[in-house]
Every structure is written in structure tokens, then in C-alpha cells.
């Protein structure tokens, strides 16, 4: 190609055009910058005047002019949500979602935040819709976590099981799935729906074959099917393999022994277990069974032997209670009553269960902590036993 000198003349013209275009763009930018503060300040003024609805309208005006201002919606939505102004927070996110120029990432985020606000306001159905639309999006996992929370709190176990099955199978989720099936089984057993209970128990055992809770439910189910012998065999094996299950299974076990007309053997079994384990719950279950089926003249001596073997406030309370009911000596009775009155408060306090995860204390045993919602975070031991175990560990360690 031959170079022509005339082309050189075009260079300054092109340069000039470039300079002019840049100047025009700069002016536009400056104009936008001049407009923007007005709308921003308008919105801010409304906010300061507590005129929140007008502030939202002004904000929408801002975002029309500046498509990059999506973050403002999120900030305002967050602000309202934090202040508990649910209706306003919902309006902010709904307005944001109504924009047709919203990129997918922002749309997903806004849908998620809207779901959280619905949840905060107790609007579970709407929250569920938001999180459901996020299934299979990049926010899949966090949306499933929220859905799990909703179904769990609403006790919709079928839906909860479905969601948990689609989540990343961490050990925690696997345990959660197992307990959801146990919850389903428990509900079915209460409703005497034995076929459904069996399906749920089998599903729980398929997830965790050695689960104490699932095996206890199986024992209860067998009993309801008039299969007391199998129920008892299952429980005795469970107690042998996992002594931690003993305090939790006394009710089912005695029911199986009663159904087989062997309540006295059951009572003797509980006594032997109370001797070897020192469990407060097993001791209490034995006293109940002994009062019903045992030889009354032996109760006091047997109880006192247990108390000396595993001294505890709970056992002392039971000894005093027994002596109060059998003693004929008025003076001695008054003494027992006085001591019982003194220890009553401590007995109550130390007979609580404590969550190993968050420390929440409860008068009854929970499979799921009501405070931190962790599964199996309660040891099947009363506070008194836990404290005793801690003390003996300290002694072993020389403290
Ligand atoms: Zn807890």
C-alpha cells in the first residue's frame, strides 16, 4: 500500500474529534453527578424526618437515574429490617425486584433478603416461596438452610426430609435427617399410625443403625404391635451395647416387662442397672417400679444401699421421702422433713439437664436443644451427675 501525504492531514482532525467526544461525555457525567446529590439528599432528609415512605420514593428516584445504585436498596432494606420495620423492608426489596434491569446475582440476593424479612415477620408461606425460587440457583445451599429452618419450626417433617436430602451431606445434616425421620415416627406413633411409623423408623435406622432414639422408637413400635418379647430383647441389647441409653429407655423397658407379666424381673433389672451405672434417672425409674411391683419391706434398705453406693442429693431426697412415709417416730419425721426442706431447692436445681453445646438447662430431656437447636447435644445425665463426673475427673488429674 502506498502511503499518501494527505492522510497526515486527517490526524489532527481525528485527534480533535476524540477530544470533543471526551468532553461531551465528561459534561454528561458532571450533569449526572450534579443531579445525583439532590436525590440522595432528598432521600436522606426524608429518612432523618422519619418520613420513611417518602424516603423510599426518593430512593427509587435515585436508582432510576443511577442504575448502579442497587446497593442503596440493600442498605435501606437492611436498615428497616434491623429496626423491625418489616412492611417497609419488604417494600424496598419488592421495588428492587420489580426492576427489569437487575442482574441475576442481585435478583437472587434480593429474593433471599426478602425471604429473610418475611421470616422475621412470621410470614412463613411467603418466605418459603422466596427460598424455593432460589433452589438450583447459586444461592441453592443457603436457601435450603432457610427452608430447613422453616419446615423444622413448622414441624413439616416430610418437606424437611426432602430439603435435607438435597443439601450437602455433612455429618450434622445426616444426623438432622435421621432425627427428622424420628420426629415423623414419633408423630405417627402418637396417632397410632403404625405403617407410617414403621417406614419412618426404618428410614432413620437406614441412616444411623445404632441410633439410640431410632431403636427406642422401634421398641415402642414393637410393643404396640404386641411384640413385647422382641421389644424387650432389642432394649436389653441396646442397654448392653450403649449404657448411655439406659436412662432414656426405662419407660419402654418396664412397659415390655409389664406386657410379658414379668414386671418384678424388670424391677430387679432396673435395680442392678442403678447399682452399676449410678444414673439418677435409672434410680428414679427403679423406685417407681419398686413401689408398684417390689416387696415394700425391702424398699428402704435397697434404696439406702444405693444411696451409700452412689451418694447424691437426689438419692438422699428419695431416702428421706421413704423414711417420712414409713417412720412412726414423730420427732424423726420432723427431722427428715426439715432436712428435705433444706435440700429441696438444690435437688430441683441439680436435677436439670444441660446442653453440652450452649449450656441451656432444662427440666426434661430434649433430643433437640430448644435454645441452640442442636441435635443430641444433651447428655442423658442430670446436672448432679455431670458435676460429680467433673469432680472425679479433677481428682484423677490431681486438681
Ligand atoms: Zn443448646
Given as residue ranges, the uncertain stretches (5+ residues, pLDDT < 50) are none
How many whole angstroms does the radius of gyration measure? 34 Å
The helix content, as a percent range, equals over 70%
User: Which strands sit side by side, in order, in the main sheet?
Assistant: 1-2
**How much of the sequence is in beta strands?**
under 5%
Largest sheet: 2 strands, antiparallel
Q: Give the bound compounds.
A: zinc ion
What's the mean pLDDT score? 88
Termini gap: 96 Å
Which class do the helix and strand fractions yield?
Answer: mainly alpha
Number of strands: 2
Tell me the overall shape: elongated
- Reading the helices and strands in chain order gives HHHHHHHHHHHHHHHHHHEEH
How large is the count of helical segments?
19
List the helices and strands and how they pair.
Blueprint: H1 6-48, H2 52-65, H3 70-82, H4 86-98, H5 104-120, H6 124-133, H7 140-153, H8 157-165, H9 171-190, H10 194-207, H11 212-224, H12 228-241, H13 246-259, H14 263-277, H15 280-293, H16 296-309, H17 313-326, H18 330-350, E1 353-354, E2 361-362, H19 383-396
Antiparallel strand pairs: 1-2
Bound molecules: zinc ion (ZN).
